[in-house]
Sequence to fold (371 residues):
Amino acid sequence: MPLLDNFAQQKLQEITKRDLLRKLEITEQKEGIYALRTGKSLISFSSNDYFGLSQHPEVISASIEATKLYGAGAGASRLVTGNHPLYVPLESALAESKHKESALVFGSGYLANLGVITALMGKDDLIIADKLTHACMLDGARLSGAKLLRFPHNSPEKCRELLETNRKHYKHCLILTETIFSMDGDAAPLDALLELCQNYDSWLLADDAHGLSIIPPIESPHLIYSGTLSKGLGSYGGYVAASKSVIDFLVNTARPFIFTTGLPPSTIAAAHKALELLKQNLSLGQKALDNAKHFTTSLNLPEAQSPIVPYIVGEADNALALSQQLKEKGFLVSAIRPPTVPTGTSRLRFTFSSLHEKAMIETLTYTLKHS
Ligand SMILES: *Cc1c(COP(=O)(O)O)cnc(C)c1O
Fold:
């Protein structure tokens, strides 16, 4: 057997021993909240498509129309010939939704964070990240060459201590957080972090991947937003929203923007239509949030701050077992294990949609209480 295969197999065995092996499962999304897995229809509490917009008939039509008009792919990077006219209305709608002058669409949320962090920061700079910020922000921080420090989750006081000791040794400083944390569902103390930015001459990058329609935008010259078109908007892609000069700077310097092909027209059109629908239906965010609160109230959990509710069980094998039990009862809820979350905090991550009905949530909580 070739050496390379030996290497991979040994590594896989180690992962399996720790109950951390992951597998790709074929899943078809249906009607916003159903998922078809191995022939079984499950009610999904596992999608980030919080408003079911990936399945909305108007979003699907917009996507089909764009393909018919412009074809299936962009054919080049945006700076070459891939800058499709559909970007213009989408980017202005995104900027408006964040109360910013401009926005720039990237190939994904991952690339948007990688792009903005590496463009702004370099080896003489300091990045201070919340301990739970998403892997792509940490990857961006590492790739930038800046000094990276991390503060305990949602502790502006600890962040302040790091700034007090370290800020003076670096040229620029960027703080990283998420508006709503992807695996814990809690909100960041943005006001307190922005106050630190003012006092310590720093900038704040807030990743709004899960906050769209949940957390209202804040206006501050210290603040940059990143986000994704792939979750609440049900399409694909990512973006950064900032002042016009910051966006122009990113167009010229963000490598994950420059050296990759533009998005397919269908994807851009779908995201734009979804954003329009969200703007016309402001109650969708509240509805998803109310569903999450109904769940946390029923189970005596701390009140949900977003449509994401963690149900921490500790060890990875327990999380897998509970997920399997729920699957047998007709619910799709993914087990989240290290390295996505810290060791010992394996969990089920429930996500609530504006389309879930109260009765579904009640059956779910009944099942959980009796499993
Ligand atoms: C999902 C996610 C991303 C990545 O977005 P994609 O568009 O899926 O690449 C970035 N940040 C956070 C917080 C996320 O949850």
About this structure: The chain has a mean pLDDT of 96. The chain has 13 helices and 14 strands. Residues 265-280 form the longest helix (16 residues). The radius of gyration is 21 Å.
